[in-house]
């Protein structure tokens, strides 16, 4: 059946705008996707820059860095959460479960708390510390100099937060605020404690912490992404901290995705 001229004109008249609208919609979506990708790339670039800065400066330098521009802290944690979303398991969740299996009367200090997820998911009293506070429950400070009293804490947590070049001073602060027999929990990116990839020797790292005045109780290397180390503060002060040889913890630098 042949198409009449009248039908053809109507089809062309009505069909063309529809095709144009469809093409315009595709262009708009493509442009939007491109902009989203560009924003993500720029955000990722900023995160990696800040991340490298935090791993290669001291804690007080990092504190000054964020004081100058607090928005950088938000930018860093947005990128951090994006990176963590690719991990099959989060170390903070294991620490949360560890605490839930114990008395809720244990007082906790979360060094480098980020979004304070630990405090939000346990019944324990948790002192949350980080370089910037966007939450009334978070105390902004250098991790080597917290406002806690000596021997006032039952559990000290470092969940992927031993980032500064002066990280031993963070652990010394944890030792100061922990009660005798108090727990020190460390979650660290696995590559930082893998001599085969340029990381520190985990035995040497544990020995240095033991020399500070702790006893190693458990080393968990079962996870692909991170290591969990558990220590208890010794009952009697036996620290030889002046002669401790601390291994260098290489920066954890994330690749572009």
Account of the protein in words:
- The protein has 257 residues and is an alpha/beta fold.
- It is built from seven helices and seven strands.
- It has two domains: 32-85, Orthogonal Bundle (Arc Repressor Mutant, subunit A); 90-233, 3-Layer(aba) Sandwich (Rossmann fold).
- The chain has helices at residues 5-55, 59-68, 71-84, 91-100, 117-120, 167-177, 202-213; strands at 108-111, 126-130, 138-140, 153-159, 178-189, 214-220, 226-233.
- The radius of gyration is 26 Å and the shape is globular.
- The model is unreliable at 34-42 (pLDDT under 50).
Give the C-alpha Rg. Answer: 26 Å
- Give helix and strand order, one letter per element, not per position: HHHHEHEEEHEHEE
Number of strands: 7
Class by helix and strand content? alpha/beta
CATH architectural category of the largest domain: 3-Layer(aba) Sandwich
CATH class of the largest domain: Alpha Beta
The strand order across the widest sheet is: 3-2-1-4-5-7-6
Helix proportion range? 40-55%
In CATH, the topology of the largest domain is named Rossmann fold
Shape: globular
What's the overall average pLDDT, rounded? Answer: 84
